[in-house]
Amino acid sequence: MSKLFVSLATVACLATASQVAAQDAPGTVSKDSYRFVIVPKVVHPWFDKVNDGAQMAAAAIEAQTGATVEINYSAPQAADVVQQNQIIESSIATRPDGIAVDLLDPEGNRASLEDAAYQGIPLTLFDSVPPEGMNIPYIGSDFCEQAKIASRRLVEILGEEGQVAIMMGVPSAPNHAIRAECHREVFAEYPNIEVVAEGIDNDDIQIAQQQAAAIMQANPELDGWVASDAAGPVGIGQAIVEAGKQGEVQLVGLDNLNEMLDLIRDGVADSSSASQPELQGYWSVMLLWQQATGAPVPNFIDTGNAFLTKDNVDG
Amino acid sequence: MSDLQKTAPGQGREASVMRALLQHPILGVLSVLVVIFVASALLSPYFLTPYNLSVVARGLAFVALVTIGQASLMILGELDLSLGTIGGLSGILTGMLMVNAGINPWLAIVIAISFGAVLGFINGILTTKLRLHSLVLTIGTAGIYGGAILVLTRGVAITGIPREIQFLGRGTLLGVPMPFIIMLVMLVLAAFLTIKTPFGRYMYAIGNNRDAARMLGIPVDRIRVLVFVMAGALSAMAGVLLVARLGTAQPSIGDAWVLGPIAAAVIGGVATTGGVGMIAGAIFGAGIIAIIENIIVLFGVSPYWQGIVSGAIVVIAISFDAISRQWLRKES
Amino acid sequence: MAYLEARGLGRDFPGVTALNDVDIDVESGRAHVLVGENGAGKSTFVKLVTGTDRPSRGQIRIDGKDAAEHPDLFRYIAYVPQELSLFPHMSVAENLLMPFHASGHRGLVRRRTLEAKTQSYLDRFGIAAKPSDLVRNISVPDQQLLQIARASTNTDMRVLILDEPTSALTPVEVERVFRVVRDFHERGIGVVFISHKMDEVFDIGDDYTVLRNGKKVDAGQLADVDEDRLIRAMSGQKLELGTMFRPKVPRGKPLLTVTGLSGRKFDDVSFTLDRGEILGFAGLVGSGRSEIMQTIFGFLKARGGRVSLDGADWPLGDTTKSVAGGMLYLSEERKHHGIFPHLSLRENIGLSITDLTNSPLGISAARERAAVDDIIKDYEIRTASREKKISFLSGGNQQKAIIGRAMAMTPKILIFDEPTKGIDVRTKAQIYKIMQGLAEQGIGIILVSSEMDELRKCASRIITMHSGRITGDFDSATADSEQLVGAIFATETEHV
């Protein structure tokens, strides 16, 4: 067994060496076909929109350059850093032209990212930040700002007074935790706004619905909701409809899942503060492609947040 | 009647050796593993690359360590659903000892593995003394150990694991990943224990018929507790190695070690009802799962299809095993 | 014409011809007794005529038609296995009438309908249980009768095969089974009756067939033959039926002393076992004899009392210590307490000889094979190979393996609980001889048996039990049968 490993390892080293040697003027290396791998955190509708954006970018590159571009979308079945590393490493073995990852945990993913860097495979991160000390271009939006847009809007429609509740998402997910904390910061600025309950939905619509229903039972005077993940507001919306409290309890949502858009159209939710997954997917592929051509790329691209209301949801 | 005894060996030594080999319980799963390995090598140009093989081997190593423990328990007729959280909690403990308490990392590893053994001991002693089914009990202890992880970490990973022990998870020896080597050593030890020692024979006896084992004077409860201890220590070892691999102690370590090892053992011919199967078979089962997970990514199978594809491969593989077994029985 | 006919029936297994050229006719309304030693081919024959296995040669004709061409004919043949195969956690009614479609139920299963129907069967078979009782809560004889009743709910049944239906029953209960069998005769049903008990064979049987080594060696009508002839046909040699197996060496000093022992199903039991003695325990099924022995052995918990071995206090409640101290218990329940079903014969025996076979490099396969082969030879265990799964061996051969395994542990005290249950006459004699030899070496032996004949042949002394209490202590050479039976029934014969 070890002999096999050694002899095959030698072959691989030679292969990587020859590739590194091909250096031309920045952005002038061109190929007939590209294959990029997108590794999200987990199978989830939000990441489908990332994938949509990645496909859009692939079509754009094909139209502009005539090269063929293939996107391999490879998602862990569970949000588990070990499984994600396994997928990153298996993808490295297929020698793609670039890998874009939404890191589950920067430190936990470090070894796999180092493998890719060592083998000269371009990397881009989206919706997450690189491990300390690693220089990888990343794309994202300000989670705290996204949350604050939502909570400020809720305060506004409540007239700066009333009882509110926060749905926290997955407490151990850093981006969810940041959003929940920023919601709290906003509410703390207003003396007549009282946070009466916090729920945990684990990024699951059904759990969000059960939690929201229970919290509204326990707090009949509740006036409004914000959430910290994409599944949360959808479950809360369902709970509001089932309790017949439409219009009585306000909801400012998060992100742009189709169900979220429906809730806005139906008037159950006032609005939603959305990160822009399509943009993140689009620019992930663009950054990977640019790296593959040898072009210098920026360290960080901010895709910003969109504010969705009844007026712009279909436009 | 003595003529009846003579007819069997009289059929020719080669034929009977051949038959024994064909009927060996481990042959089915081994041939499935070989078929899947060869098919993967033929179908994907990336599969046989040294990097990919080391990825598969390393990924397999962690879950295989837990599988050794779970399969040993299954031979006894027990199941421990808390092995995953024992691995996770022991990993967190190593991290806290090394990083927060600043203890010598090697000592921290020894403490964490012993701690896993203690958690296994708790499962074992409660199962035997309370005469509970281990499955029921460990649903509870899995919750407790898993809850302890969240209490200790508040969901946040412990970073800054010392570099000096990271080679245990990341390093290689002659091109082979360290965790895989450690797993192989444990496998050899476990195989020796179960096949060649009285202790191992007693494990099979207990799994076959616990009452009959007591009637023979086998120290049934002591052996059961010891195997729980062993499984706990192996899971802790997996957790510690994974911490060394990741360079952080993740609260999610062990989440994938609950059903995976049971599935691997069952695919490998270890019955959940006890007394049947071999540890090596269980590891081959884990190997089959690891290769399937790998080629699915190599082929770029859509994540929405992965469950169906990997499930179908497993069903086809075990049907092949079962059908060939029936065919062999009919032949003889 | 016979309803069920076997013509030139044969079945080969690797290395063994289990059945060869056997002709048997089972007539409607008659009892056909099938006798033979363990492994003579009776079970193979049953499997072939019930359609669970296919013959290698020959033909089975049911109602004059070839069953190979009409496999649905096998539904006319009902079979009641020797081992209980009921669902202990389900009710009597459910056990009796499953599968529901066969007992004429369609659609939803309604408890009230099931239980009403069940009561008539319980009355006819004299089963003392309510339809709603859980099977695990009714007595063993009632369970045995329930199995027979279950077979008879098959409305298609024309032939009923009973495989040793009486091995767990006392004479009174055996009579209940026989009443049922005679009732079947009147309804024109043919019965195949498999038994090792000669008195029962002659009591119930009309026709007989003797199998030996897979071949038919004798057949005819029982009215024309005697017991001697059957036994000679079964064993192929003349056996001394009257032989005594009591130890010929005088008893030694007291070995085991039991004082005021109480536990599950028994109270205040005291007795002494001497070296070189075979001490018999007589009583009805359920009189607490097995429980006493399992308590002394440490398998069950004692409620009170003391046990001492060689004058020193004996630790109760720990079978490991008991075995280490030289006490062994061979249970009546081979399936539950004796064999390890998924392991081979070698592994089953090998478990007890690890002291012999173990080395720093682990168990030596060669030494183990040699030791196991010796035991197979010494105890005449009939098997195609030592690697055969023990559950594929016949009951008698399993029992010999268990005894051989126990002997390898060099015991001081041996407790045999119904060691010859379901075992043929010649193997019985072998087991008696083994016990005698051991006792003469100074080992103390306790023999629990429901066969008075067995106790009188082997035991030096017989203790009788009734309802968990000792009712008598007899010298077997001088005790008369009526005294013994009186002590077993504790003179309260009217309520039995």
UniProtKB/TrEMBL annotation, chain A:
<dbReference type="GO" id="GO:0030246">
    <property type="term" value="F:carbohydrate binding"/>
</dbReference>
<dbReference type="Pfam" id="PF13407">
    <property type="entry name" value="Peripla_BP_4"/>
</dbReference>
<dbReference type="InterPro" id="IPR050555">
    <property type="entry name" value="Bact_Solute-Bind_Prot2"/>
</dbReference>
<dbReference type="InterPro" id="IPR028082">
    <property type="entry name" value="Peripla_BP_I"/>
</dbReference>
<feature type="domain" description="Periplasmic binding protein">
    <location>
        <begin position="37"/>
        <end position="295"/>
    </location>
</feature>
<feature type="signal peptide">
    <location>
        <begin position="1"/>
        <end position="22"/>
    </location>
</feature>
<dbReference type="InterPro" id="IPR025997">
    <property type="entry name" value="SBP_2_dom"/>
</dbReference>
<keyword id="KW-0732">Signal</keyword>
<dbReference type="GO" id="GO:0030288">
    <property type="term" value="C:outer membrane-bounded periplasmic space"/>
</dbReference>
<comment type="similarity">
    <text>Belongs to the bacterial solute-binding protein 2 family.</text>
</comment>
<protein>
    <submittedName>
        <fullName>Monosaccharide ABC transporter substrate-binding protein, CUT2 family</fullName>
    </submittedName>
</protein>
TrEMBL record, chain B:
<feature type="transmembrane region" description="Helical">
    <location>
        <begin position="259"/>
        <end position="292"/>
    </location>
</feature>
<keyword id="KW-1003">Cell membrane</keyword>
<keyword id="KW-0812">Transmembrane</keyword>
<feature type="transmembrane region" description="Helical">
    <location>
        <begin position="132"/>
        <end position="152"/>
    </location>
</feature>
<keyword id="KW-1133">Transmembrane helix</keyword>
<feature type="transmembrane region" description="Helical">
    <location>
        <begin position="173"/>
        <end position="195"/>
    </location>
</feature>
<dbReference type="GO" id="GO:0022857">
    <property type="term" value="F:transmembrane transporter activity"/>
</dbReference>
<dbReference type="GO" id="GO:0005886">
    <property type="term" value="C:plasma membrane"/>
</dbReference>
<feature type="transmembrane region" description="Helical">
    <location>
        <begin position="26"/>
        <end position="48"/>
    </location>
</feature>
<dbReference type="Pfam" id="PF02653">
    <property type="entry name" value="BPD_transp_2"/>
</dbReference>
<feature type="transmembrane region" description="Helical">
    <location>
        <begin position="304"/>
        <end position="323"/>
    </location>
</feature>
<keyword id="KW-0997">Cell inner membrane</keyword>
<protein>
    <recommendedName>
        <fullName>Autoinducer 2 import system permease protein LsrC</fullName>
    </recommendedName>
</protein>
<dbReference type="InterPro" id="IPR001851">
    <property type="entry name" value="ABC_transp_permease"/>
</dbReference>
<feature type="transmembrane region" description="Helical">
    <location>
        <begin position="225"/>
        <end position="247"/>
    </location>
</feature>
From TrEMBL, chain C:
<keyword id="KW-0547">Nucleotide-binding</keyword>
<protein>
    <recommendedName>
        <fullName>Autoinducer 2 import ATP-binding protein LsrA</fullName>
        <ecNumber>7.6.2.13</ecNumber>
    </recommendedName>
</protein>
<dbReference type="InterPro" id="IPR017871">
    <property type="entry name" value="ABC_transporter-like_CS"/>
</dbReference>
<dbReference type="InterPro" id="IPR027417">
    <property type="entry name" value="P-loop_NTPase"/>
</dbReference>
<dbReference type="InterPro" id="IPR003593">
    <property type="entry name" value="AAA+_ATPase"/>
</dbReference>
<dbReference type="Pfam" id="PF00005">
    <property type="entry name" value="ABC_tran"/>
</dbReference>
<comment type="subunit">
    <text>The complex is composed of two ATP-binding proteins (LsrA), two transmembrane proteins (LsrC and LsrD) and a solute-binding protein (LsrB).</text>
</comment>
<dbReference type="InterPro" id="IPR050107">
    <property type="entry name" value="ABC_carbohydrate_import_ATPase"/>
</dbReference>
<comment type="similarity">
    <text>Belongs to the ABC transporter superfamily. AI-2 autoinducer porter (TC 3.A.1.2.8) family.</text>
</comment>
<keyword id="KW-0067">ATP-binding</keyword>
<dbReference type="GO" id="GO:0016887">
    <property type="term" value="F:ATP hydrolysis activity"/>
</dbReference>
<dbReference type="InterPro" id="IPR003439">
    <property type="entry name" value="ABC_transporter-like_ATP-bd"/>
</dbReference>
<comment type="function">
    <text>Part of the ABC transporter complex LsrABCD involved in autoinducer 2 (AI-2) import. Responsible for energy coupling to the transport system.</text>
</comment>
<dbReference type="GO" id="GO:0005886">
    <property type="term" value="C:plasma membrane"/>
</dbReference>
<feature type="domain" description="ABC transporter">
    <location>
        <begin position="4"/>
        <end position="238"/>
    </location>
</feature>
